[in-house]
Amino acid sequence: MTTLIDGSKTDTKSDTETGTAPGAKPSAEPKPAERPAPYGQADGMAVASFVLGLVGTLVANVILGPCALVLGALALARHTTRRARAMLGMVLGAADLIILATLATADGSLSWTFGG
Fold first, then answer.
1. Half-sphere exposure of residue 115: CA atoms within 13 angstroms, side-chain side
2. Residue 87 pLDDT > 90, yes or no?
3. Which helix (H) or strand (E) element contains residue 65?
């Protein structure tokens, strides 16, 4: 702190310490390191995992099952607010792979067969 001629006091921190121009007010926007994680992307991954796992139980389980597992794991790693949906997507993705293995051992195909 420095005392001026008129008796008022002023802050003497250097511009490099504060990161602002002289006399400028500090911005209210957080610095990049202080910004919260993008929960929107993680929530979207959780929903996509659930949808892909659900659709994968009916069609293309060889492709959609692993995709559901990966997206669910990524959503959980990014701290999604929809943990239950990400977990359910992973469970459905694992079920897709179990269905795939069952079909492959039962009749040698990788798809559903309806009818005779």
1. 0
2. yes
3. helix 61-77
H-run or E-run covering 86:
helix 83-107
Name the residue with higher pLDDT: 111 or 55: 55
CA 48/CA 33 separation, integer angstroms: 28
- Higher-pLDDT residue of 28 and 93 is 93
pLDDT given at position 91: 95
Residue 96 near residue 57, CB atoms below 8 Å: yes
With tokens 């943990």, the residue in question is 83
Give the percent of the chain with pLDDT over 90: 34
**CA 66/CA 56 separation, integer angstroms:** 9
Q: How many CB atoms lie within 10 A of CB 10?
A: 9
Buried b / exposed e over 68-85, threshold 16 CB at 10 Å, is bbbbbbbbbebebebeeb
First to last CA, the chain: 90
Element at 40 (helix H, strand E): helix 39-56
